Amino acid sequence: MSLAVVFARASLGVAAPLVTVEAHLANGLPAFNIVGLPETTVKEARDRVRSALLNSGFEFPARRITVNLAPADLPKDGGRFDLPIAMAILAASGQVPATSLEQLEFLGELALTGALRSIKGALPAVLAARDSERILVLPAGNGIEAGVIHPCPARLAPHLLAITAWLQQEGELAVPERVISEERDYITDLCDVIGQEGGKRALEIAAAGEHNLLLLGPPGTGKSMLASRLPGLLPPMSEEEALETAAIRSISGLNLDPENWRLRAFRQPHHSASAVALVGGGSYPRPGEISLAHNGVLFLDEMTEFERRVLDALREPLETSSISIARAAHRVTFPARFQLIGAMNPSPCGHYADGYSRSSSEQILRYLSKISGPFLDRFDLSVEIPLLPPGELSRIRPKAEGSAQIRKRVLAARERQLKRAGKTNARLSAAELDKFCPLEQEDALFLEQALHRMKLSIRAWHKLIRVARTIADLNDEQEIGRHHLIEALGYRAMDRLLQQLQS
After folding, report:
1. What is the CATH number for 365?
2. What domain range includes position 39?
3. What is the CA radius of gyration of the chain?
4. Residues 202 and 91 grouped into a single domain
5. pTM of the predicted model as reported, rounded to 2 decimal places
6. CA–CA gap between residue 349 and residue 357 (Å, rounded)
7. Of residues 135, 70, 133, 142, the one with CA closest to residue 108
8. Does residue 223 lie within any of the structural domains?
9. Does residue 443 lie within any of the structural domains?
10. Which of 44, 111, 335, 488 has the most CB atoms at less than 10 Å from its CB?
11. Number of structural domains the chain divides into
12. What gap in Å lies between CA 141 and CA 137, rounded to an integer?
């Protein structure tokens, strides 16, 4: 037989579309051509496959070999197609039985010795193979990724010879060892933070309603410590959410920790990060920090040090929970549902316009204007994290409330939100706010007057109601009251600071 068909999987975002690898051996001068929109790394498979077959003891056909990767308009990159190309050539030359390949898929990069090297994006491919009811043969190095799926349709092979022996029923391929998903606690705990009760309360509200939070205060007051404790307050991820997050890590080439893969991500990019590093991109699009923080927390420390255009690139993903990257040949969409926590100083010298500050009001306004108003408008809460009062560090303090205790209240509030609207309060649309968060006429008038005094936008009106609804849920109260609105207005520290400087 001079024609053979083998199935493989490409990598396109978090999807793994099917690729049909067709190998044809024809008479003529020996040649080896790969067609079907292959990138450079795929074209280089010709040399890797030839050496791997010869060094494994197989015959490399001295004929005109044409390998087609279909569909032809789907870009293919990486070394993942080495193994399926090698299997198609072996089947076309009659060195392995072609009939046994119909219910199989292959992915793997070949070493020149015939050994298999692990690939990026194995997890989406395993999920796609399971949906197609086929068995996916993978390198042994991808065993941990495949093991998070149960039942797992994958088989693991260390070498090309192990696969050919298995196809001829002369051996067995290993089944990935199942990764047990046990709920684990986070290392950090909120009781480690000294004082800052206002910041802890804001963090609890942010966790309960999935609100974005801005921490504003001088250096060394505990802003980063508070932000790092947020994942420990959030509900555990469902298996579907955990698989989504693991799939993004898989296509990014990041190792999957079998003990911590169910924990929510906490990503903290450096302020020198580019827009591509943050939102994703490249000639062949790869996920950025916002996608790696999917179902978790993205923490931007020293926010005023980021480039303004980099921060503004986050505005659209914050609203849509995804990022679409368009290129001439294709369009890729990555999920990006993350909770944003920002931290910044109130002035260039780090302090407020008081006895500690060395900056004028004009300098402070110029410093704060590095962040655009529309981006600041994406934060539901902004809270001051002040310097600790004298004597706070040396006094004997009672044991502070830990993350586990606060998390119980957060979980109870989340359950009320999901039961009421099927989503968290931060995700409620304007129409859903009218339905689930009605205000008394007097309270609505009070909020509107406060809005005009603080010169806030209509978006801020909606955010204040969402925050007030979360506060009511934490208190297990059915209706939004005036005291909830007053507390929500108290979490507008940035608006008050700007108003004070402009007056």
Report:
1. 3.40.50.300
2. 3-168
3. 28
4. no
5. 0.87
6. 7
7. 142
8. yes
9. no
10. 488
11. 2
12. 12
